[in-house]
Amino acid sequence: MYAIERAEMIRLEKNAIENLGIPSIVLMENAACGFVQALKSEYGNLRGKKICVVCGKGNNAGDGYAIARLLVLSDANVNILPLFDIELLSDDAKTNATAAKNMRLAFIKNMDDEYDIIVDAIFGTGFHGSVESPAKEIIQKINASSAYIAAVDVPSGVALCDEANSFFVQCDLCVAFGYTKLYQLTGTAQSSFKKLVIAPISITTPDNPYTIINKETFALLPKRESISHKGTFGKVLAYTGSYGMAGAAILSGKAVLKSGAGMLTLAVPCDIVPTIAHEFPSAMTFPLSEGADVVGKANTMDALLIGCGLGTSNSTKETFRSLINCQKPMVIDADGLNILAENIEIIKNKNAILTPHIAEFSRLSGVSVDEIKRSPIKYLKNFCLSFGVCVILKDAVTLVCDKGEHLAVCHAPNSGMATAGSGDVLSGVVTALLAQGLDPFDAACAGVYVHSAAGAMAKESLGEAGMLSEDILNFVPKAFVAPCDIAPHIKEL
User: Fold this and answer.
1) What does each C-alpha distance from 271 to 264, 286, 287 come to in angstroms?
2) C-alpha span between 60 and 90 (Å, rounded)
């Protein structure tokens, strides 16, 4: 399952029309048929339902007029609220508006009545500018309505949400045509829909699509041979933990082993070695006594995990700077990121995955939290391109980007995962996948999937309010057993 940017959608539609010979009016009819099919699937029987289709003036409006015509054929009671005169419509929209008039559909001048369903066909992917009257007042009415709201391709106004504007339709169902649009999954628009259905319209596969992390991502997980030994599945050194933060070392370390790595060594301060040994007998320890050659130890490993509960003392910073020069794939999290933010240039072109939340990414990138929240993809791609690393930007909707070239989105919000230690578990999972031979981008995407799947299982078992990071951790092995639908609210028709 993929997402694309608006420019790519425009290119794909143009290619279908100019090179494949599919008339634009046929694409519009395909879109309308897909919308009605999705609406029936998600809402149920439309017979006798009172529906208002609100139409703007572009091709999104043309979809709306065609949808209204098809809804009448489903025995719905349909009204059309046009926001612009027919003379102002695009050619295809005018054709479908004329057909609706010829079928004697009811055209109304206001939306004062109560409706079972409101169809939002005001603005689509090509909309630019600001939301002004009369659309602004209508969108306010739509959002205040108790009706079931269904958006055509994108909720109106969402196309602007990569900027400061956040005025858009909030819908129960969005039916995206061809592919979902990347901008509606992130930033201020990520809450614009409750369910998203992707309907085919006869366009080709995009050149550089963005991956939506879902149950299909399960296929990236490494296969295990029965005839094997612990060295087969990778050795990890974790430079984690400090006095008072042994839990972070234990959580992330257990996640490493529960995700299939064969061996784990925890390089930790001497004063927490007894705690680690008692609470986590499956791990080996490498006490960081004076003169301990942690770099030499790291060079015998397959992957490194750096930062969880590490602290930021001067000696820790010195060891950190030595470790990141090891020629080993590594994951850097938490205090590792805080140390890195003091001299970000040292990470350039390293074989590393960084796992910041938004505040940590703000410190790394020098961009404000508010700016990142508005345009996360823009700043993430710029950072990864500048520094040549892979980044997992953690949030309710998580993004993965590799050197600015590949991008993936995990739209699987789960408030139960907003708990201390959840990020430590993620870092351990990703490190284990690196140790088992996955490249950084695949390890990051697969790790985000496993983490989300474990969280979804914990939520199903325990509910969200009382989830602990240990609960997520305990479901990690099960996430490797069979695909889990981590985003059931996003599906293809």
Assistant:
1) 19, 12, 9
2) 10
Distances (CA, A) of 162 to 175, 181, 325, 367: 20, 12, 37, 15
Instruction: Based on the fold, state whether residues 184 and 231 are members of the same structural domain.
Output: no
277/194 Cα distance (integer angstroms): 46
Report yes or no on 493 lying in a domain: no
Domain assignment of residue 247, yes or no: yes
d(CA 303, CA 329): 5
Alpha-carbon distance of 398 to 446, in angstroms, equals 13
Q: Are 215 and 486 in contact (CB under 8 A)?
A: yes
Q: Are 172 and 39 contacting, i.e. CB atoms less than 8 angstroms apart?
A: no
Q: Which residues have CB under 8 Å from 218's CB, separation 6+?
A: 449, 453, 482, 483, 484
Q: Are 379 and 371 in contact (CB under 8 A)?
A: yes
- pLDDT (tens digit, 9 = 90+) per residue, 405-421? 899 999 999 999 999 99
C-alpha 362/C-alpha 325 separation (Å) is 24
For residue range 281-303, what is the model confidence (pLDDT) as tens digits? 999 999 999 889 999 999 999 99
Q: Which is nearest to 480 in space by CA: 235, 221, 185? A: 221
DSSP 461: H
pTM: 0.94
The enclosing domain of 88 has a CATH number of 3.40.50.10260
